[in-house]
């Protein structure tokens, strides 16, 4: 590919989670999944809790779980902003699974409120990201 | 004579124990302050990106949003006062409470009703003692606030702000916190957080033409993006106020404990001198008595 790779920064509210070069980023906005390749037009999109997958310039893939946030693209710079972002290998899988299953049970019975449902979606994203990092 | 010597020694011992404690607190504050500063620094990239996104929106659209609407005749205001949980930090809490009181008086003079929100045990105690109402308070994180704390607070405050004034909502939100200027200077500051003031892109010569705002595509659309973005912006402002206050609190505590340690040291020196004098006086008196007794015998 002739275009220079994207400069990516993933920032959470309290830290810079990941930064580096990437040739492809996949994230989920409120409208659906979106893939960003180098040279993408300027964009500002709202993310839902999801797994953001970043394919780095050397072909590796990095998975991150993000809470609701934004992705902004301009001048070949991409920044993913989320209140909470977790790298796949940082996820405590056991604990996340346990918590998710209790919340799922509540959600099935219709007891869970919006906050809990939201938290469940984040946990599910974290589990997916964690699984991808370990495989 | 003998009893005064013992008293002096006891006092010296107790002062040196106190000194050990204040010295330990000084060191603890000093090590935590580095952590607090790092936390404040780590939050900067997020703030930077957030500001960039907001100004990108502001430059493209004439934005209208409930969080941006300035009420002409505000009737009710909320103050979020950020204090510490623990004392022994010099005038830290007193200063920030004083700033809040000034703002309170100013708003009341303008004919507004003031609703108080407080973080930190010290502020809560101040208002409780004076039996003044506090709408809601949060405690337990003043020296190491997390983003979750800020999120919780901003959620409550945004709810309150977006409610119509007739239902007890507020028209303005002020934050009173302590700005960390340097290790030696921390100043209490009152800022108006809501309604937000969005500045146009910090366009300027310093950022180069390449950074001029591009024509963004908004997904799904500009209003939705703004809707999602502004609450994050508010939470971020509160987070940064909490972080700055935490660093300020620790810096004040370190300074207060350092001067306490210094004072204890000079007190110890003074007491040692007095104790030595008393001991010398005792010895002299004993010698005088012995000599006097011996010469009485030989006569």
From TrEMBL, chain A:
<dbReference type="GO" id="GO:0005524">
    <property type="term" value="F:ATP binding"/>
</dbReference>
<comment type="function">
    <text>Produces ATP from ADP in the presence of a proton gradient across the membrane.</text>
</comment>
<dbReference type="InterPro" id="IPR020546">
    <property type="entry name" value="ATP_synth_F1_dsu/esu_N"/>
</dbReference>
<dbReference type="InterPro" id="IPR001469">
    <property type="entry name" value="ATP_synth_F1_dsu/esu"/>
</dbReference>
<keyword id="KW-0472">Membrane</keyword>
<keyword id="KW-0139">CF(1)</keyword>
<protein>
    <recommendedName>
        <fullName>ATP synthase epsilon chain</fullName>
    </recommendedName>
</protein>
<keyword id="KW-0406">Ion transport</keyword>
<dbReference type="GO" id="GO:0045259">
    <property type="term" value="C:proton-transporting ATP synthase complex"/>
</dbReference>
<keyword id="KW-0066">ATP synthesis</keyword>
<keyword id="KW-0813">Transport</keyword>
<keyword id="KW-0375">Hydrogen ion transport</keyword>
<comment type="similarity">
    <text>Belongs to the ATPase epsilon chain family.</text>
</comment>
<dbReference type="Pfam" id="PF02823">
    <property type="entry name" value="ATP-synt_DE_N"/>
</dbReference>
<keyword id="KW-1003">Cell membrane</keyword>
<dbReference type="GO" id="GO:0046933">
    <property type="term" value="F:proton-transporting ATP synthase activity, rotational mechanism"/>
</dbReference>
<comment type="subunit">
    <text>F-type ATPases have 2 components, CF(1) - the catalytic core - and CF(0) - the membrane proton channel. CF(1) has five subunits: alpha(3), beta(3), gamma(1), delta(1), epsilon(1). CF(0) has three main subunits: a, b and c.</text>
</comment>
<dbReference type="GO" id="GO:0005886">
    <property type="term" value="C:plasma membrane"/>
</dbReference>
<dbReference type="InterPro" id="IPR036771">
    <property type="entry name" value="ATPsynth_dsu/esu_N"/>
</dbReference>
Automatic annotation (TrEMBL), chain B:
<keyword id="KW-0139">CF(1)</keyword>
<keyword id="KW-0406">Ion transport</keyword>
<keyword id="KW-0375">Hydrogen ion transport</keyword>
<keyword id="KW-0813">Transport</keyword>
<dbReference type="GO" id="GO:0046933">
    <property type="term" value="F:proton-transporting ATP synthase activity, rotational mechanism"/>
</dbReference>
<dbReference type="Pfam" id="PF00231">
    <property type="entry name" value="ATP-synt"/>
</dbReference>
<comment type="similarity">
    <text>Belongs to the ATPase gamma chain family.</text>
</comment>
<keyword id="KW-0472">Membrane</keyword>
<dbReference type="InterPro" id="IPR023632">
    <property type="entry name" value="ATP_synth_F1_gsu_CS"/>
</dbReference>
<dbReference type="GO" id="GO:0042777">
    <property type="term" value="P:proton motive force-driven plasma membrane ATP synthesis"/>
</dbReference>
<comment type="function">
    <text>Produces ATP from ADP in the presence of a proton gradient across the membrane. The gamma chain is believed to be important in regulating ATPase activity and the flow of protons through the CF(0) complex.</text>
</comment>
<dbReference type="InterPro" id="IPR000131">
    <property type="entry name" value="ATP_synth_F1_gsu"/>
</dbReference>
<keyword id="KW-0066">ATP synthesis</keyword>
<protein>
    <recommendedName>
        <fullName>ATP synthase gamma chain</fullName>
    </recommendedName>
</protein>
<comment type="subunit">
    <text>F-type ATPases have 2 components, CF(1) - the catalytic core - and CF(0) - the membrane proton channel. CF(1) has five subunits: alpha(3), beta(3), gamma(1), delta(1), epsilon(1). CF(0) has three main subunits: a, b and c.</text>
</comment>
<dbReference type="GO" id="GO:0045259">
    <property type="term" value="C:proton-transporting ATP synthase complex"/>
</dbReference>
<dbReference type="GO" id="GO:0005886">
    <property type="term" value="C:plasma membrane"/>
</dbReference>
<dbReference type="InterPro" id="IPR035968">
    <property type="entry name" value="ATP_synth_F1_ATPase_gsu"/>
</dbReference>
<keyword id="KW-1003">Cell membrane</keyword>
<dbReference type="GO" id="GO:0005524">
    <property type="term" value="F:ATP binding"/>
</dbReference>
């Amino acid at each position: 590919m002739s275009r220079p790779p994207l400069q990516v920064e993933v920032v959470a509210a309290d830290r810079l989670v990941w930064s580096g070069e990437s040739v492809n980023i996949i994230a989920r906005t409120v409208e659906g999944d979106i893939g960003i390749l180098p040279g993408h037009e300027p964009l500002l999109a709202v993310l839902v809790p999801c797994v953001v997958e970043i394919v780095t310039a050397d072909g590796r893939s990095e998975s991150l779980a993000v809470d609701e946030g934004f992705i902004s693209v301009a001048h070949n710079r991409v920044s993913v902003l989320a209140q909470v972002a977790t790298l796949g290998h940082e996820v405590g899988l056991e604990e996340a699974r346990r918590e998710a299953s209790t919340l799922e049970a509540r959600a099935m019975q219709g007891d869970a409120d919006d906050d809990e449902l939201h938290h469940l979606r984040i946990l599910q994203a974290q589990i997916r990201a964690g699984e991808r990092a370990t495989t | 004579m003998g009893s005064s010597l013992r008293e002096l020694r006891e006092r010296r011992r107790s002062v040196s124990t106190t000194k050990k404690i204040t010295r330990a607190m000084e060191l603890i504050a000093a090590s935590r302050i580095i952590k607090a500063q790092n936390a404040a620094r780590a939050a900067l990239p997020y703030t930077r990106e957030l500001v960039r996104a907001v100004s990108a929106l502001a430059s493209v659209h004439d934005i209208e949003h409930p969080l941006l609407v300035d009420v002409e005749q505000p009737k009710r205001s909320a103050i979020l006062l950020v204090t510490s949980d623990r004392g022994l930090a010099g005038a830290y809490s007193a200063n920030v409470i004083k700033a809040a009181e000034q703002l309170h008086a100013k708003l009341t003079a303008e004919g507004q009703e003031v609703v108080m929100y407080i973080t930190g045990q010290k502020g809560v105690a101040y208002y409780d003692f004076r039996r003044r109402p506090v709408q809601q308070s949060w405690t337990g994180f003043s020296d190491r606030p997390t983003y979750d704390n800020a999120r919780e607070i901003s959620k409550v405050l945004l709810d309150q702000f977006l409610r119509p004034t007739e239902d007890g909502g507020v028209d303005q939100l002020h934050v009173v916190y302590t700005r960390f200027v340097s290790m030696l200077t921390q100043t209490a500051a009152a800022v108006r957080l809501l309604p937000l003031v969005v500045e146009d892109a910090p366009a300027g010569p310093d950022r180069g033409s390449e950074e001029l705002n591009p024509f963004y595509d908004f997904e799904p659309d500009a209003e939705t993006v703004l809707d999602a973005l502004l609450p994050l912006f508010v939470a971020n402002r509160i987070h940064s106020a909490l972080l700055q206050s935490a660093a300020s609190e620790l810096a004040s505590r370190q300074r207060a404990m350092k001067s306490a340690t210094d004072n204890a040291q000079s007190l110890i020196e003074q007491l040692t001198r007095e104790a030595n004098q008393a001991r010398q006086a005792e010895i002299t008196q004993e010698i005088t008595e012995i000599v006097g007794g011996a010469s009485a015998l030989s006569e």
